[in-house]
Amino acid sequence: MMLVENMLMFQIMFWVILSIGVVAYDLPVFLAVAGGLALVYVYIARIFIATSVPLKRAVGESQSQVVAHTAETLSGLSVVRAFRMQERFLTENLTIQSRSTVVSFSLANLSLWHAFRADIIGLLWLVLACCLLAVLDASMEASDAGLIVSNSFPIHLFF
Predict the structure, then answer these.
(1) Which of 60, 3, 23, 47 is nearest to 137 (CA)?
(2) What whole-number distance in Å separates Cα of residue 42 and Cα of residue 144?
(3) Which positions ≥6 away from 97 have C-beta within 8 Å?
(4) What is the pLDDT along the chain (159 residues), one digit of tens a residue?
């Protein structure tokens, strides 16, 4: 399985590098635009990583609390029933589950935040820059402009 994943990663990287080469050959200014957008992406990725590390730790802690509470309740179930404390343990379980769900939901939303910004940088700004640079270059033929625009789409996989 790992071999297949590595092969797929190398195929995508090869495809992206070839696309960058095709676009940069016809439009050298593109490298400056892509470099600037890469810096913006690195800034966003650093924010994401700095925020996601404590959230991932909190998710792990909250999930372990759920598992520990469930295991303790199940191991002492006869005692809980003997003292008629089912409601108390149910309330505690719901409280712990609630906290775990909130933290997991926050991490999922953070991941969506990062994916949205990466897509905006890659698809919107990168492709838009290629289109504008191709239109503004008066010496460029229509076929070259089409080649540049069509090869700018796979480059967003890099971002």
Answers:
(1) 23
(2) 30
(3) 66
(4) 677 788 888 888 888 889 889 999 989 999 999 899 889 999 999 999 999 999 999 999 999 999 999 999 999 999 999 999 999 999 999 999 999 999 999 999 999 999 999 889 888 888 899 899 988 988 889 999 999 888 888 887 666
